[in-house]
Design goal:
It is found in: Secreted. InterPro entries: Calycin, Lipocln_cytosolic_FA-bd_dom. This is Lipocalin/cytosolic fatty-acid binding domain-containing protein. Keywords: Glycoprotein, Secreted, Signal. With about 230 residues, this protein is α+β, with helices and mostly antiparallel strands. It has one domain (about 40-230): Lipocalin, CATH 2.40.128. Helix content is about 35%, strand content about 35%. A hairpin with a 5-residue loop joins strand 2 and strand 3 (about 90-100). The radius of gyration is 25 Å and the shape is globular.
Length: about 230
């Protein structure tokens, strides 16, 4: 009987030791720093005033069909964001150059609580992620058109170029979101002028989203560009 009690006592001591170890591990876990991805993909606060002005496109990643090939054909893109009479409504002018030809689109968006929203004719939601660049905007964008869902990660700056550290952070954010490697713009580009007549942007963008017959071909082109174009 005495021998049994000794074994029981040793067993209880082992259980206590295991409990202490588990509590220690839980304590360490509670005070451990956030995972790198948790910090990098957490939305930040951006005010309406922060959004205003001109933003130059630096690069991005997207699973939108055709985006990979288009990203290599674009030679410049800029956004001009202005306020309207309604505080929650912003006007965007998007101007791009493709093979020397400039074109421009304009559309209104809702901007509230650090989030940009378009509800019709498709659904778009943008939030903004952390960056070490004070003159940059990292955009995490989700678009839903019918049953199709697309995600983009875009980097804009007030300047043509950003530091290598900012680029590495942006590429890490793409990895965290399980997105393709970003395609970056050549900084030695010519910006399109301001006085280009603008087309209605949402209709044009919706036409691209609705062109489902072309999505398969666009994905093939994306793969070819990724294979053969550096």
């Amino acid at each position: 009987m005495e021998s049994f009690r000794k074994k029981e006592k040793r067993g209880i001591q082992r259980v206590k030791c295991v409990a202490v170890v588990l509590l220690s591990l839980l304590s360490l876990a509670n005070f451990a720093p956030l995972n790198g991805c948790d910090h990098l993909v957490k939305p930040i606060t951006v005010s309406n005033e922060d959004m205003l002005g001109r933003w130059l496109y630096v690069g991005g990643s997207s699973d939108l069909p055709g985006s990979r090939s288009l990203g290599r054909l674009l030679t410049s893109v800029w956004l001009d964001i202005t306020a309207t009479a309604q505080r929650s409504i912003l006007n965007l002018i998007q101007t791009q150059r493709i093979y020397g030809e400039c074109s421009s689109l304009t559309y209104n968006v809702t901007f509230e609580n650090s989030t940009m929203i378009i509800e019709q004719p498709f659904y778009l939601k943008e939030v903004y992620l952390t960056t070490d660049c004070s003159d940059c905007l990292v955009v995490h964008e989700e678009v839903t058109s019918d049953k199709d869902h697309f995600t983009s990660l875009l980097l804009f700056s007030r300047n043509k170029t950003v530091s290598s550290d900012v680029l590495e952070m942006f590429k890490k954010q793409a990895e965290c979101l399980h997105m393709p490697s970003p395609i970056m713009m050549d900084p030695n580009y010519e910006i399109c002028p301001d006085n280009i007549p603008s087309s209605e942007g949402l209709s044009a963008l919706n036409s691209l989203l609705q062109a489902k017959m072309g999505h398969g071909l666009a994905r093939i082109l994306d793969k070819l560009f990724d294979m053969f174009v550096n």
